[in-house]
Design goal:
- The chain is an alpha+beta fold.
- It folds into three domains: 88 residues, Helix Hairpins; 49 residues, Roll (SH3 type barrels); 81 residues, Alpha-Beta Plaits (2-Layer Sandwich), CATH 3.30.70.
- It contains seven helices and ten strands.
- A five-stranded antiparallel sheet has the order 4-3-2-1-5. A three-stranded antiparallel sheet has the order 7-9-8, covered by helices on one side. Strands 6-10 form a two-stranded antiparallel sheet.
- Strand 1 and strand 2 form a beta hairpin.
- The termini are far apart.
Length: 274
């Protein structure tokens, strides 16, 4: 392009190009201000009430910034007469391809977003989720990290957790500890119950209200079976579980109860004729 061509361009199209350039600059400045204002307002709304996790809020803000900037760039290109239909189609196709390739990850992400909002559990809770039981150590947008009672570090996808039942043992102030005790047929089960009640209630961390449940559960050939059910917070579950069994053994031993035995029926051998 020589000087004449440049001069001819400035004379014939310079004014129109300059107007477009000025419009694009104004659109960029105003658009960036609107994006900043919108994202700031979004951040304040997400933090209001403290229901949205900070990590999730930052992710949503970042996604919003990217999307709004893409819209702004497409609008500026349209000012210069660039056809943005192909760009939009390209972005849509790329989005579909990414969605198909990362369907599992996107599913985990979507479940993580819902879990951040609904909060079925929090870090430190003892839960059963996605087929794993343990203490929650991290609640991420894609996966939840738990440590099982046998000290195994486990990562479970949020999609699997959100699509299954979630049991949170830490939400309520107490849970029931299920134990059983069997006495011999020669022992009065009501006497055994009266002996156990004060002993079980005295175990550390056993709830006073509700009081422990000790009742006759069923009758077996060896003798009556008792259900012994104290209540405690989930943090003390195993301590109360083991101490309850120790208390049963010590109480029955001190009372001199015999050990339950399975009754045997002896069959007489037929007498053979001599």
């Amino acid at each position: 392009m020589n000087t004449a061509d440049i001069w001819n361009f400035l004379v014939t199209q310079g004014g129109d190009f300059g107007l477009k350039l000025l419009t694009a600059i104004i659109a960029w400045v105003v658009g960036r201000w609107l994006i900043t204002f919108s994202v700031t307002l979004l951040g304040k709304l997400l933090r209001r009430g403290g229901k949205i996790d900070e990590t999730l809020a930052n992710y949503l803000k970042s996604i919003t910034i990217v999307l709004l900037n893409i819209v702004l760039i497409l609008a500026i290109l349209d000012i210069f007469g660039v056809k943005t239909t192909s760009f939009a189609a390209l972005l849509a196709g790329a989005g579909l391809a990414i969605g198909a390739a990362w369907s599992g990850m996107l599913g985990n992400f979507a479940a993580g977003v819902f879990m951040q909002v609904l909060r079925p559990y929090k870090v430190g809770d003892f839960v059963s989720a996605g087929g794993v039981t343990g203490t929650v150590t991290e609640l991420g947008l894609f996966a939840t990290t738990l440590v099982t009672p046998d000290n195994v570090f486990t990562v479970v996808g949020n999609g699997k957790i959100f699509g299954d039942n979630i049991h949170n043992y830490s939400t309520l102030p107490f849970r029931r500890v299920d134990c059983v005790a069997k006495v011999a047929n020669s022992v009065n089960p009501l006497d055994a119950i009266e002996r156990l009640k004060p002993v079980i209630a005295a175990i550390p961390n056993v709830s006073k209200d509700p009081a422990p449940d000790i009742e006759i559960l069923e009758f077996t050939p060896e003798g009556p079976k008792l259900c012994v059910r104290p209540y405690t917070h989930t943090d003390h579950y195993w301590q109360v579980y083991f101490d309850t069994h120790k208390a049963i053994v010590e109480t029955f031993g001190a009372a001199g109860y015999p050990v339950p035995e399975t009754p045997l029926a002896y069959r007489n051998s037929p007498v053979q004729a001599s």
